[in-house]
Amino acid sequence: MADDKAKRKPAVPETILKRRKQRELKVARELKQKILAKKKKHEKRREIFHRAEKYAQNYKKMEKDDIRLARLARNHGNYYVPDEPRLAFVMRIRGINGVSPKVKKILQLMRLRQIQNGVFIRLNKASLNMLRLVEPYVAWGYPNLKSVRELIYKRGFGKINGSRIGLTNNTLIEKSLGKRNIICIEDIIHEIFTVGKNFKLVNNFLWPFQMTSPRGGYRKKGNHWVEGGDYGNRERYINNLIRRMI
Length: 246
Description:
The protein is an alpha+beta fold. Helices cover 53% and strands 11% of the residues. The protein is built from 9 helices and 7 strands; from the N terminus they run ααβαβαβαββαααββα. The strands form 2 sheets. The protein has a 5-stranded mixed β-sheet. The chain has a two-stranded antiparallel sheet with strand order 4-5. A hairpin with a 2-residue loop joins strand 4 and strand 5. The longest helix has 62 residues, at 14-75. The radius of gyration is 29 Å and the shape is elongated.
């Protein structure tokens, strides 16, 4: 009888058993959540890759269509006139000394509050009229795909909860713009470059680009671009200035 008592193990308190069970359930639940999160992340990365691939095909198709139409027109002895640009990149290059209140207000509406700030603008009758009024203080033109991509990747910051946050993670973009099916930085580039239906939302999400002084400096800020100066519409040559300021 004494030997049986010696061999019998001491009873484990019920509270300890409950705690142990809860701990095991918690570990199993966390492991399950990790597996699901990893699977979801993998699916999201795959979707982002397919979207980027589809956008690249669309850009290539647009470029080939322009070349094909230009060749077709030339073969028939005509001229091919491409569509009017719908996107402009506007940079402020001068201060506000002696600026009229109307011009100052337009620069504020365009979010060009500092020298060398840059923003994307949808071109229409209203925006073109505003650009004419502020032309002596800005340099603008029509950016190509490479410029849009470099600006967003290298100088892109988002407005998240009123703060200027770098676009270093697609999760930040999805949290802010996921309701409009914009989940990655390639979606932002596509929306801006094609001036899509969510252009205004995406453009407001992007913080104004803070550019550096151009390598080699300005030529003459007081003269128009066509007169050998710097301000005004540079059309496609804005891309050269962007390269020098990124």
